[in-house]
Write a structure and sequence with these properties.
With 565 residues, the protein is mostly beta strands. Helices cover 6% and strands 49% of the residues.
Length: 565
C-alpha cells in the first residue's frame, strides 16, 4: 500500500472527528427553553360581540416576578406575545410548556416567527395560566374598576361626567381655564407603585390620585381640550377600567348672553360649560348640553352631556354621554312640555320625564334604515315629526333616502312616507341634514329637489305651500330660508341668499350679503375678513355689528359670549 493511500486512510478518522466536532449544536442539546428570555412583549386583551382591545402590555423587563393577577370583564380573553428571535424548534418547545389550571377552553392562534396568542372561552370565574418558567397568571372575572372625579378645590365650578357605556367616551371633566388639578377616586385599593409610569400626579391615599394638569389657556376660542390616559392604573388585585382616558375641557368663565337683549342667559355657575341652553316653555328650568367628546373618523355627530338646571336645586345629569347628530338651533334637546324633553341618538328618539326621572324610547328607525335624521315636536298639535335616512347607491350615485314619520301624542304612528325625499352627501362624507321647524301657524319641512333644497309649509288647516331654500328659523308669522348649493367638498366660497317668508305672502329675497351667512336664532349675520354684519329686515340692509370685536363665541341658539375688556 502506498504512503499516499495510508495517509489518506489514516486521515479519515480525524476528518470524521473534525466534522462531528464542528457540527452546530442542535437546539435540543442546549439548555431548556425559557419563556422569560424567549419573549420580549406580553399582551392581555379581551373582546365581545361589539368590540375587542388590548388593555395591558408588558415589555420584557416588566414580565412578572411573582403571581400575576389580571382581571377580565368580557366573555373572551386573550394572552399574546412577541418572540425574541426564537427558532422554530425553540418556539415549539415553549408552546409545550403552556398549562391551564381551572375551567377555561384554550386554543393557540396565529403562531409564527413573530409571535403567538392564546384565546380563551367558556371560562369560569377564575383560572390560572402557566407560561413555562414565568410565575402563574391568575385570570379572574371582575366588574370594571369604578372611578369618580373630584376637583381639588370643592368651591371650584366644574362639570364632571361619568359615562355608563363601554361604547362611548367614559369620562369628561369640564373645568375653568387655569385649573391645574383633578382628583380621580377609584372603587378599589390601587397598586400605588410608579411602575408602569402613571400620568403626572400624586397618590393621596390608596384610592385617590391627584392629577397634575397642563392647564392651557384658551386663545381665540372659549374652549381647549386634552386627554389624560388611565391605561396604566391597576388595582391591587389587577382590575382596570373600561374607559382608558379622561377628556379634559377648559372653558373660559364667561356667561352666555341673549343675542337680542345682551342680558345674561341662565343662572347656574356651570353655564359657561354648556354649548347650548334650552329653556322649558314656562322658563322655570333649562337643559344644558355640552360637547363631551368626538367620534372616531368622519361622524358628523358629537358626544353630549345633558344636564337639567333648576333654581335652588343641584344639577341633574340626564345623560352623561349620548351620541347625537340631530340638532335644533345647535342643541340636541327639545322640550315637549314643562316636564318632558326629547333627544336622539343613532337609531332612537328618547323622552325623558323630569318628574319620574325615567327615560323611554318613543321612536326607533325601521328595518334597513340607517340613522335618525331629524325630529321636531309640535306642541300645538301634540305630534312628533321624525325623518330617518338610509344610504343607497344607484347608477353610481351615492345618496341618502329619507323616510318621513308622524306620531301622535302617545307616539303611535299616524303616517309614514317612504322615500319622502333624497339628500346627497355634504362635504363628501355626511348627509345633508334637512330640518323640521314647528310654529303656531304650521309645520315647515325641508326637502331636496334637483340638487337644491326647498321647504314645504303645511298650515294647520292642511293648506300646503313651498319655497326654495332651507328653513333655518321660524317665529310667529316669520320664517327665514337660506338658499344655496349643497357643498360637495371642502373649501371655496358658497353663494348664499336669505329669504324672508311671512304668513300669507311669497318669500322675499334679502339684499346680497357681504360675506358668509350664519344664522343665530333670528339674527342673520354675514362674516367676512373678521368682521360681522347684521341683516335688518325692515330696511333690507346689512349693517356693521356694533358689538363686533367683543364677541368671543356665538351659538346657533341665539346666545353669545363676550371677551373680557
Amino acid at each position: 500500500m502506498s504512503a499516499s493511500r495510508r495517509l489518506s486512510q489514516s486521515s479519515l478518522p480525524y476528518r470524521k472527528r473534525a466534522r462531528r466536532y464542528l457540527r452546530p449544536i442542535p437546539e435540543a442539546d442546549a439548555k431548556p427553553a425559557s419563556f422569560r428570555s424567549g419573549i420580549r412583549e406580553l399582551r392581555f386583551g379581551e373582546s365581545d360581540k361589539m368590540q375587542g382591545y388590548v388593555f395591558r402590555t408588558l415589555d420584557g423587563n416588566e414580565l412578572p416576578e411573582r403571581l400575576y393577577e389580571v382581571a377580565r370583564h368580557m366573555d373572551e380573553f386573550s394572552i399574546g406575545w412577541t418572540w425574541s428571535d426564537a427558532g422554530k424548534h425553540r418556539r415549539e418547545e415553549l408552546l409545550q410548556q403552556i398549562q391551564v389550571e381551572g375551567k377555561a377552553s384554550m386554543r393557540i392562534q396565529g403562531e409564527n416567527e413573530h409571535g403567538a396568542s392564546l384565546s380563551f372561552s367558556d371560562m369560569g370565574d377564575s383560572f390560572t395560566v402557566i407560561l413555562g418558567n414565568l410565575p402563574a397568571i391568575m385570570v379572574t372575572r371582575m366588574e370594571p374598576l369604578g372611578i369618580k372625579m373630584e376637583t381639588a378645590n370643592s368651591t371650584t365650578p366644574s362639570l364632571l361626567l361619568h359615562g355608563d357605556s363601554p361604547y362611548v367616551p367614559r369620562l369628561a371633566a369640564l373645568l375653568p381655564s387655569g385649573e391645574k388639578q383633578l382628583i380621580v377616586v377609584f372603587s378599589e385599593d390601587m397598586d400605588t407603585s410608579r411602575f408602569p409610569q402613571l400620568p403626572a400626579g400624586t397618590w393621596l391615599d390608596a384610592r385617590r390620585y391627584r392629577l397634575e394638569l397642563r392647564a392651557d389657556q384658551p386663545g381665540g376660542s372659549d374652549s381647549v381640550m386634552t386627554s389624560v390616559t388611565l391605561m396604566p392604573f391597576r388595582s391591587a388585585r389587577g382590575n382596570f377600567m373600561d374607559g382608558d382616558y379622561i377628556n379634559i375641557h377648559w372653558r373660559l368663565p364667561e356667561r352666555w348672553r341673549d343675542i337680542s337683549t345682551g342680558e345674561t342667559v341662565g343662572w347656574s355657575e356651570r353655564d359657561p360649560f354648556y354649548d347650548s341652553i334650552v329653556f322649558s316653555p314656562d322658563r322655570s328650568r333649562y337643559a344644558g348640553a355640552t360637547i363631551a367628546g368626538y367620534p372616531d373618523g368622519d361622524g358628523d355627530g358629537r358626544f353630549y352631556g345633558l344636564v337639567l338646571e333648576e333654581k335652588g336645586r343641584p344639577p341633574k345629569v340626564i345623560e352623561p354621554m349620548v351620541y347625537s347628530a340631530v340638532l335644533q338651533d345647535g342643541s340636541p334637546v327639545q322640550w315637549v312640555d314643562n316636564d318632558r324633553l326629547l333627544y336622539a341618538d343613532y337609531e332612537q328618539v328618547f323622552e325623558y320625564s323630569i318628574g319620574s326621572g325615567r327615560k323611554r324610547t318613543v321612536f326607533t328607525i325601521g328595518k334597513g334604515e340607517h340613522r335618525v335624521h331629524a325630529f321636531a315636536y309640535d306642541r300645538y298639535a301634540n305630534k312628533l315629526y321624525v325623518l330617518s335616512h338610509r344610504y343607497e347607491s344607484k347608477d353610481g350615485q351615492e345618496q341618502f333616502s329619507i323616510d318621513a314619520y308622524v306620531l301622535d301624542r302617545e307616539y303611535r304612528q299616524l303616517e309614514r312616507i317612504e322615500r319622502w325625499t333624497v339628500t346627497p352627501f355634504e362635504y363628501g362624507y355626511r348627509p345633508k341634514r334637512l330640518p323640521i321647524r314647528v310654529a303656531e301657524q304650521g309645520v315647515y319641512r325641508s326637502f331636496v329637489r334637483d340638487g337644491r333644497v326647498f321647504t314645504q309649509f303645511e298650515a294647520r288647516g292642511g293648506r300646503k305651500a313651498e319655497a326654495q331654500g332651507e328653513i333655518v328659523y321660524v317665529d310667529g308669522n316669520l320664517a327665514l330660508l337660506l338658499d344655496g348649493p349643497i357643498p360637495g367638498d371642502l373649501g371655496g366660497e358658497i353663494p348664499q341668499a336669505v329669504s324672508v317668508w311671512q304668513k300669507g305672502s311669497e318669500p322675499i329675497e334679502a339684499a346680497k350679503a357681504p360675506g358668509l351667512i350664519r344664522l343665530y336664532a333670528s339674527r342673520i349675520v354675514a362674516e367676512k375678513d373678521g368682521k360681522r354684519y347684521v341683516y335688518d329686515i325692515q330696511s333690507d340692509s346689512w349693517d356693521a355689528w356694533e358689538e363686533e370685536g367683543s364677541i368671543l363665541h356665538l351659538s346657533p341658539s341665539g346666545m353669545y359670549k363676550k371677551t373680557k375688556k
